[in-house]
Amino acid sequence: MLPILDNDGIREADRHTIEDLGVPGIVLMENAATGVVDAIRDGFPDARQVLILCGPGNNGGDGFAAARHLANGGLDVQLCLLGDPEGLTGDAATNFRLAEAFDIPTAVIDGDDLSTVEALIDDWPADLVVDALLGTGIDRPLAGRYAALVELVESSGLPVVAVDVPTGLNGSSSEIPGPVLPADATVTFAALKTCHVLPPACTVCGEVVLVDIGIPPAALETGCSLWLTEAEDIALMLPQRMPDAHKGTFGHLLIAAGASGRGGAVAMAANSAVVVGSGLVTMAVPEPVVPVVDGACLEAMTLGLAADDSGSFAGFDGLDDLLERVTAVAVGPGMGTGRGASEMLAGLLHTWNGPLLLDADAVNLLAGDPEKLAGRGVPPVLTPHPGELARLLGSANADVVADRLEAAREAARRSGAVVVAKGYGTVIAEPNGQAWVNPTGDVGLASGGSGDVLTGTIGGLLAQGLEPLRAALVGCWLHGRAGEIGGEIYPAAVPAGELPDLLADAWRELEESDED
Question: In angstroms, rounded to a whole number, what is the distance separating the alpha carbons of residues 219 and 436?
């Protein structure tokens, strides 16, 4: 797992390394600059004239040092400092003096006139811009000459490499607060920052290159509460299948879902659970849905329950006996929110205290009252999309979209559940505040039914005995990677019905990465 830090976290790790461990700050800055240079050489090998825009802080210091290395490597480099050189301090001042000593041309912009920068872009001309202006710490929208400079560079169409964080973003936030200079690549140091991994901020970071500058892992991980999952970690969590095992070894998943016209949700969830290894799967559906699902997943069993006039569940009756024979329950996709569905969910929550996943309408039925789930023997797994998460919390959809991480943490704390806040950069949160970002998945998953596949995937893993957090982490990875593989086949949306087969390809990849 890779730690994801906010501004306070990286500052403390930096301070600890310099003050407590005795690593000179200028060494860290030199390592950072080397990382920037390597990223430029690897990602932009044709760049010959590099304009490096520097601010008055340590981010600018990284830029001054990078300029020296690039010039030593034979590139034509032009520095541009926004601010008074006399105001530079510490390691940034040292690297500015070194750049002068190495005769690197430097333009100083100490006012609002940006004509010098415009000339360097148009007439010199630059073929790459390095953004070393502000770094992580900006806490308000850009204004004045910084906003004008961002507009000037962006309108030029030149490729941009951001140092640590694109100018205009706050390292601690997923928001885009105002004008921002989009980067083709962002070179960040020691640890990922929040803005690099969560939308919409991450959408303007380009390719994020993480550079080790000499801060020890323990300094980065101490107190960290947000992580990025990696393939090697997920591979170690996959359930194992021993040679002498049988279907009973791998659990029995009950999927209680569906209504007339929405039986496909149940079938896709069941197919996914079968593919990820659940030994047995039973689809409990309203009676009118039985003919639809009975032949849609040949490996699953079907239980028809009483239906109301709309073709949805009439209540809980009929599930009691089956609950004694299953190892996990997934409930919600396509079942509606009428009275019968509500009674079915209430009966299930009262009767079943084992591994449980709630999706879609099961989450909607808890709107405004996530505390109803608190105190269960096994933490449930909730898999809401932003609208469902907003209803669960009784908040506005816009608030959830603006800060999905905090919304997921709040829902987990209030419900005592593992909350999978679906979307680009799905967030998985625990009640204790720890959270993970899943890096797999693409826009091809934006199609009806893909969430039902995730329900069956996580449910099938729960049935096999994976504890809730691991089931959520593995399920999200497999589901997202299946979408990526499908994206190589389908030009737009990946049909959700194809995803269960693609889960197998994603699983194989993980096994192969573990062997390597």
Answer: 19
Pairing of strands 49-54, 2-5: unpaired
What angle (nearest 5°) sits at the alpha carbon of residue 134, between those of residues 404 and 206? 55
CB 383 within 8 A of CB 429: no
Q: At what angle do helices 58-72 and 90-101 cross, to 10 degrees?
A: 30
SS (H, E, C) 148-160: HHHHHHHHHCCCE
- Mapped onto helix, strand or coil, the DSSP state of residue 264 is helix
Whole-angstrom distance, CA of residue 263 vs CA of residue 286: 9
Cα separation of 263 and 257, whole Å? 8
Q: Which residues pair with 53 in a beta bridge?
A: 80, 131
Gap between the Cα atoms of 22 and 216, Å rounded? 12
> Over the stretch 101-113, which tens digit does the pLDDT of each residue have?
999 999 999 888 9
Helix, strand or coil, per DSSP, at residue 363 = helix
Place of tokens 């086949």: 489
Number of neighbouring beta carbons within 10 Å of residue 8: 11
Instruction: Return the SS3 of 207.
Output: strand
Find where tokens 């239980």 sit: 303
Question: Is cis: bond before 200, omega within 30 of 0?
Answer: yes
Distance CA 359, CA 475 (A): 14
- Maximum pairwise Cα distance, the chain: 84
Kindly report, residue by residue over 300-355, the tens digit of the pLDDT: 999 999 999 999 999 999 998 899 999 999 999 999 999 999 999 999 999 999 99
DSSP line for 476-493: HHHHHHHHHHHHTT-SSP
Q: Which position has the token pair 């050189």?
A: 85
Q: Helices (DSSP H) in 328-467: which residue ranges?
A: 339-351, 361-364, 386-393, 397-402, 404-415, 450-463
0.90 surpassed by pTM: yes
Q: Which residues contact 258 (CB under 8 A, 6 or more apart)?
A: 265, 266, 283, 285, 286, 289, 293, 333, 334, 335
Residue recorded with tokens 């603006």: 402
